[in-house]
UniProtKB/TrEMBL annotation:
Belongs to the methyltransferase TRM13 family. One of its GO terms (molecular function) is tRNA 2'-O-methyltransferase activity. It is an enzyme of class 2 (transferase). It catalyses: adenosine(4) in tRNA(His) + S-adenosyl-L-methionine = 2'-O-methyladenosine(4) in tRNA(His) + S-adenosyl-L-homocysteine + H(+); cytidine(4) in tRNA(Pro) + S-adenosyl-L-methionine = 2'-O-methylcytidine(4) in tRNA(Pro) + S-adenosyl-L-homocysteine + H(+); cytidine(4) in tRNA(Gly)(GCC) + S-adenosyl-L-methionine = 2'-O-methylcytidine(4) in tRNA(Gly)(GCC) + S-adenosyl-L-homocysteine + H(+). The lineage of its organism: Eukaryota, Fungi, Dikarya, Ascomycota, Saccharomycotina. tRNA methylase which 2'-O-methylates cytidine(4) in tRNA(Pro) and tRNA(Gly)(GCC), and adenosine(4) in tRNA(His). Residues 56-83 form the CHHC U11-48K-type domain. It comes from the Eukaryota. InterPro entries: Methyltransferase_TRM13, Trm13, TRM13/UPF0224_CHHC_Znf_dom, Znf_CCCH-type_TRM13. This is tRNA:m(4)X modification enzyme TRM13. Its EC number is 2.1.1.225. GO terms for biological process: tRNA methylation.
Length: 430
């Protein structure tokens, strides 16, 4: 028998660990350097190369980003900021900074001095927030869903956003605001996910109602940013597929889709809707920030949709009250807050405290003496109270300013374990 040949062990050199060169730019107001990679021969990464007096320069169209100097002319032809100065017909600079027939709320003179420190303001106004908050009855939790999004819910591992979208769709249905006879305007639409999934719900509804298609059905998409991977084409594509699959039994639907890149403060809503043949307008949004919510309400009052009764309703999931702007609140919102003891100087207290509603604040985390006795739970409770004050001021203003056949309310549209920003503002034409 032949001797078994001994196998030679294959020896491999341990691969060398690649050297990673990190940018040496010291970030202002932080005790660390930039974590981006740099080339071996450079001191800074490409983003901070300008700090090293190299050949990277700010973009003339938008100084927030930089480009290589030798590539500047080519970059200017394709920069996303190109064309910002080429405005659509519905652009009107700062049109929604004022109301067309603004009624100035009669508020008492300010008693708060601008020289008051943050500590003094908190000492003075935290008791007012607590007093007002204790008078509020808890909001109703109206968590809903729609079978049109059941497939999306089953496919998604992370359920947070689908649950919210499904609840908003379900609540729109309950309020009679879901159907192909509406033109939906999504304010702060981003990629237009909410509009796309509302369209899927409407297609599902159409199977049972088989309503006649109207020319007014569609989606107006409002956002000031450049968004990649937009859902606009999917609205049309999914509707076309639906029509083909049901052509023998259902009336076809043909939603209009109209997107514009514009800040809500500059939006002339009447001009935007011109040509859309809108019989019923429904405003929608998921997590519209504080100042954008107030600007949206102003854009509605600055248009003819309320006077002509073409505003069918409004459903906005609100967020970020800490970036509200007192000057852009509706006049009667200011009146409501004044009755609770808050004016323009003291509004900054509300802006600070509302952030406590969604911030996990350790008990020991405080830089202000007057807060040192407050626990994390107490700060959260005060934050929710401050947020409720701002939300109730909006409801108060809408009830004052809208015709009597409109109802306005706020409610929780999902549980707070889904999102801490779970308050929805709803308006319905009766």
């Amino acid at each position: 028998m032949a001797e078994p040949t001994s196998k030679k062990r294959k020896t491999e050199d341990t691969p060398a660990v690649p050297v990673v060169y990190r940018c040496e730019y010291l970030i202002p107001n932080r005790t660390r350097t930039c974590g981006m990679q740099r080339k071996q021969d450079n001191k800074y990464c490409s983003h901070h190369m300008i700090e090293g007096q190299s050949e990277r320069v700010p973009c003339p169209l938008d100084p927030k980003h930089t480009v290589w100097k030798q590539d500047l002319s080519r970059h200017l032809k394709k920069c996303p900021s190109l064309g910002k100065d080429l405005h659509d017909p519905w652009y009107s600079l700062n049109i929604n900074h004022k109301l067309s027939n603004e009624l100035c709320a009669q508020t008492s003179p300010s008693q708060t001095q601008l020289g008051d420190t943050e500590e003094q303001l908190l000492d003075e106004y935290l008791p007012l927030i607590r007093e007002a908050g204790e008078q509020f009855t808890p909001l109703r939790l109206i968590s809903s869903s729609h079978e049109g999004l059941s497939k999306r819910l089953s496919e998604k591992e992370h359920q947070k956003h689908p649950i919210q979208q499904s609840s908003l769709a379900g609540n729109l249905k309950t309020k009679g605001l879901l159907g192909p006879d509406n033109f939906y305007i999504e304010f702060g639409c981003g990629k237009a996910e909410l509009s796309r999934f509302l369209n899927l719900c409407i297609l599902e509804e159409h199977k049972s109602t088989n309503s006649t298609s109207t020319n007014s059905y569609g989606f107006g998409l409002i956002d000031r940013s450049v968004n990649r991977m937009k859902n606009d084409p999917k609205i049309t594509k999914e509707t076309t597929i639906f029509n083909a699959q049901n052509q023998s039994s259902l009336h076809p639907l043909h939603p209009q889709v109209k997107r514009t890149r514009i800040d809500i403060k500059d939006l002339d809503l009447d001009n935007f809707l011109d040509g859309c043949k809108c019989e019923n307008v429904v405003g929608i949004s998921k997590h519209l920030c504080g100042v954008a919510t107030d600007m949206t309400l102003r854009s509605l009052f600055n248009s003819s949709v309320i006077e002509t009764q073409s505003l069918n309703g409004l459903m906005i999931a609100m967020c970020c009250r800490h970036i509200c702007d007192y000057d852009l609140l509706l006049p009667f919102s200011k009146e409501y807050l004044a009755a609770k003891g808050f004016n323009k100087p003291s509004f900054k207290v509300l802006q600070k405290v509302v952030s406590w509603a969604v911030s996990s604040i350790p008990d020991s985390s405080t830089g202000i003496a007057s807060q040192s006795s407050l626990s994390s739970a107490e700060k959260t409770k005060l934050g929710v109270m401050a947020r409720r004050l701002i939300d109730e001021s909006r409801v108060y203003a809408l009830r004052k300013m809208l015709p009597s056949n409109y109802t306005s309310e706020i409610f929780w549209y999902v549980d707070q374990n889904i999102t801490l920003e779970n308050v929805c503002l709803c308006v319905k034409r009766n």
